[in-house]
UniProtKB/TrEMBL annotation:
SUPFAM superfamilies: Protein kinase-like (PK-like). This is Aminoglycoside phosphotransferase family protein. It comes from Candidatus Fusicatenibacter merdavium. Residues 27-270 form the Aminoglycoside phosphotransferase domain. InterPro entries: Aminoglycoside_PTrfase (IPR002575), Kinase-like_dom_sf (IPR011009), Pseudomonas-type_ThrB (IPR050249). The lineage of its organism: Bacteria, Bacillati, Bacillota, Clostridia, Lachnospirales. Signal peptide: none annotated. It comes from the Bacteria.
Length: 371
């Protein structure tokens, strides 16, 4: 895990963007696991303020930040046009990057760290848990719609910001390496979790095999569709803006569906320590199926629709593998807020996988209602 930025670096970054007004407040913001996010408040006129999101990008995770920002600039301008054509408000319905003083969409500080700024989208909330089922339905429509809006995006122009991001087979191999190296001597204490993964090697390769056989299409997908990567309007309760566009890349529709389910259809938080609270809520699952298919509006093939439950199981399994790998490697990837945080997160994911295995027939039956 990276260290927090030093105060001087933070101030250097703030001073190097084209912000208006006088800085009146700064606070760490949100619950993302990857970047360092701050909310800045500027007084632009007496009594009038403007809010900005400033982020220090995670250089260990994103090794080519300039390419990543090129993706974001291109994707957001593409979306902005479509949103405007459809009568929407591009200022609120997609991210707006604010340029640095040198005109670039990012600033590199004297320590070599990359910073970027977004207009803060006011009057919205990003939820860490589903508080109202209708919100989850709205999030499904928004993520499905996001994929549909990008269906004619020139995929070949996108940089792969994290190679093999959802290559579950490769994640499985990296995990095996981490067990072998066991750099923190933690493997001995997590034998049960290691066995859980090893017993499901077959599962890890399901989408790899279908892709190799050309049975499932690559699309431009978000790849990180958890509920807190979406802003819901406080008044209308509509999901208005998909955020965290760092991993928009060619990917699988089922994975976008699946990542939302593993996070939002869980009856407990991602890092819940009491595993008896963790299960996959089939009512929420069904609401998401309905919303996602509506949002995709007929774009998915029959095969993709049938594979949605597999997306849920695989994304949950993969996410658990990634948390466990990070735990074994010494917590260098995800931010942690307590000791063994990654292990707790891994355990909820594996509990969810087990629960999905039990509910597998029901999960598939639900899909058949909507196909
Ligand atoms: P990470 O990659 O660390 O998850 P995100 O880009 O998802 O970082 O940002 C972290 C959090 O900051 C989000 O979950 C959301 O709560 C908030 N956030 C990010 N961008 C905006 C924005 N433009 N307007 C309002 N809130 C935002
Ligand atoms: C990370 O960045 P954030 O917190 O929205 C991670 C996702 C994981 C998720 C688990 C770039 O998402 O892949 O599924 O944590 N993002 C990256 O909560 O690795
Ligand atoms: Mg995020």
């Amino acid at each position: 895990m990276e260290k927090e930025p030093a105060k001087e670096q933070f101030l250097e970054a703030v001073g190097n963007f084209q912000f208006r007004g006088i800085l009146r407040g700064t606070q760490p913001y949100g619950n993302g696991h990857i970047n360092d996010t701050y909310l800045l408040t500027f007084e632009i006129d007496p009594g009038a303020t403007e809010k900005i999101i400033l982020q220090r990008m995670n250089r260990q995770v994103f090794t080519r930040p300039a390419e990543l920002m090129e993706n974001i600039m291109n994707v957001t301008s593409f979306l902005r046009k479509k949103i405007a054509e459809q009568g929407g408000d591009p200022e609120r319905e997609t991210l707006n990057v604010l340029p640095a003083r040198n005109g670039l969409p990012y600033f590199v500080d004297s320590a070599g760290e990359y910073w970027r700024a977004y207009r803060y989208i006011t009057g919205t909330t990003s939820f860490d848990r589903v508080e109202r089922p209708e919100d989850f339905y709205e999030s499904a429509v928004a993520f499905g719609n996001f994929q549909r809006l990008l269906s004619d995006y020139p995929a070949a122009t996108l940089h792969e910001t994290i190679p093999g991001f959802h290559d579950t087979e490769a994640r499985f191999r990296t995990f095996q390496e981490a067990v072998k190296k066991d750099v923190r001597s933690r493997a001995g204490s997590v034998q049960k979790e290691i066995e859980f993964v090893l017993a499901r090697e077959e599962l890890a390769g399901v989408f790899n095999r279908l892709q190799a056989a050309d049975e499932i299409p690559l699309r431009v997908t978000h790849n990180d569709t958890k509920l807190n990567n979406l802003l819901i309007d406080n008044k209308t309760r509509k999901a208005i803006c998909v955020i965290d566009l760092d991993t928009v890349m060619p990917g699988l529709a089922m994975n976008d569906f699946g990542d939302s389910i593993r996070f939002g259809a869980s009856t407990a938080a991602e890092d819940e320590q009491d595993l008896s609270k963790v299960s996959c809520d089939l009512t929420l699952y069904e609401m998401y199926v309905k919303g996602f298919l509506e949002g995709c509006a007929g774009q998915l093939t029959h095969q993709e629709i049938l594979l949605l439950p597999m997306g849920a199981k695989l994304m949950t399994f993969e996410c658990g593998i990634r948390f466990l790998t990070d735990y074994l490697e010494g917590d260098h990837y995800y931010k942690i807020r307590r000791e063994h945080h990654n292990l707790d997160r891994c355990r909820t994911q594996f509990r969810l996988v087990e629960d999905m295995e039990k509910k597998w027939d029901a999960m598939n039956l639900i899909i058949r209602k909507y196909q």
